[in-house]
TrEMBL record:
The lineage of its organism: Bacteria, Pseudomonadati, Fibrobacterota, Fibrobacteria, Fibrobacterales. GO terms for molecular function: GTP binding; GTPase activity; metal ion binding; ribosome binding. GTPase that associates with the 50S ribosomal subunit and may have a role during protein synthesis or ribosome biogenesis. SUPFAM superfamilies: P-loop containing nucleoside triphosphate hydrolases. Transmembrane segments: none annotated. Mg(2+) binds at residues 212, 232. Its cofactor is Mg(2+). Residues 160-194 form a coiled coil. The keyword NAD does not apply. This is GTPase HflX.
Length: 371
């Protein structure tokens, strides 16, 4: 059944600590997130504030300006690029009757709910949504009573049946779900133990960098690929055969993104175990992204919590065929050891494969001498 698209308006914030150009990049990414969740973005606002308004995040004048825009565009969804407190959501919805208010985390969770395929990822989404809901519970009650049985962005996942009582019941539900996840994680750890004699490469990177396309190209497989943020939510493993009956195990993981709340990363950390158990990390970066350096920094920061710094890392700038000559020169000057590739156009695949084989040979040598 085809999803009904929702008209939406987005709000980005410029503060003394966030430059306008940076806020514009963030707002552009939020637009892609909203579209991936199933929204039609009708208009965007970039609001400059000295300090966040504790009641509504933005000033009352801007709220009224946005209200007029929502009416003009017949939009029923308002999305902020900053996280909102439960009271801010309530205050905004009181001032904007009939409008659903979400923040960046809410949109990301809507996408996760849409793309979760396995039992594990569905459980993780449910836990994350309930954790997100607890501080917003009083808002959720009134909102869900208006939307009884309703569908739409931010409405997938747990639903009304898990909001029958109060925070205590929801927290109990979270604990039950976490116990189920612990059982799945234990099984995953046993599987990882059996794979210890196999050279494993964790493919990581910012969302939509082309990790799944690269996995498909290297292994001639058919991992789900779509030009969307978080198209891949479940961890996928594929074999890359390298001759003499040997193979490298490639693990395509969920993509990273800026402003990912810590509790969301914690919930999905087990799906990143492929990276933490890897013998080599392949960091795939979109060579065309204006903010590729920030993508590298975000990936590095998240990997610090997951992967031993001694694990070798390979950087591959993907989509090189679409990058300008100036950008390719810049990448070569700043990252001379990195590869410039195109999974889509099959450029640089042999060089990447040889780097992976070389890393495997180093690992095998260390295994023989007991390092």
């Amino acid at each position: 059944m085809q999803q009904t698209l929702e008209n939406a308006i987005l709000v980005g914030i410029v503060t003394p600590n966030i430059r306008k150009s940076t806020a514009e990049e963030h707002l552009s990414e939020l637009e892609r997130l909203a579209e991936t969740a199933g929204a039609v973005v009708c208009r965007t606002f970039l609001q400059r504030v000295q300090a966040f308004n504790p009641a509504t995040l933005i000033g009352e004048g801007k709220v009224q300006e946005i209200r007029a825009a929502l009416d003009e565009e017949n939009a029923k969804l308002l999305v902020f690029d900053e996280d909102l407190s439960g009271s801010q959501v309530r205050n905004l919805e009181e001032r904007l009757p009939g409008i659903k208010v979400l923040d960046r985390t809410g949109i990301i969770l809507a996408i996760f709910a849409k793309h979760a395929v396995t039992a594990e990822s569905r459980l993780m989404v449910e836990v994350a949504q309930l954790q997100y809901l607890v501080p917003r519970l009083s808002h959720a009650w009134t909102h869900l009573s208006r939307q009884a049985g309703g569908k739409g962005i931010g409405m997938n996942g747990p639903g009304e049946t898990q909001l029958e009582t109060d925070r205590r019941i929801i927290r109990k539900k979270i604990q039950e779900l976490k116990k189920k996840l612990e059982k799945i994680e234990s099984a995953r750890e046993r599987q990882a133990e059996r794979r210890k004699g196999i050279f494993q490469v964790g493919i990581v990177g910012y969302t939509n960098a082309g990790k799944s396309t690269l996995t498909n190209r290297l292994t001639s497989s058919s991992v789900y690929v779509k030009d969307q943020l978080f198209a891949t939510l479940d961890n996928t493993m594929r074999k890359l055969y390298v001759g003499d009956g040997k193979f490298i195990l490639l693990s395509d993981t969920v993509g990273f993104i800026r402003k990912l709340p810590p509790h969301l990363l914690d919930t999905f950390k087990s799906t990143l175990s492929a990276a933490s158990n890897a013998n080599c990390i392949l960091n795939v970066v979109d060579a065309t992204a204006n903010d590729y350096e920030e993508h590298l920094e975000i990936t590095h920061r998240i990997l610090q919590e997951l992967v031993d710094e001694k694990v070798p890392r390979i950087i591959a700038f993907n989509k090189a065929e679409a990058a300008s000559e100036e950008r390719r020169k810049e990448l070569l000057a700043h990252y001379p050891e990195a590869l410039q590739i195109s999974a889509k156009e099959n450029i640089g695949m042999e060089a990447l494969k040889q780097k992976l084989i070389s890393a495997m040979q180093d690992w095998e040598k260390n295994q023989r001498i007991g390092l």
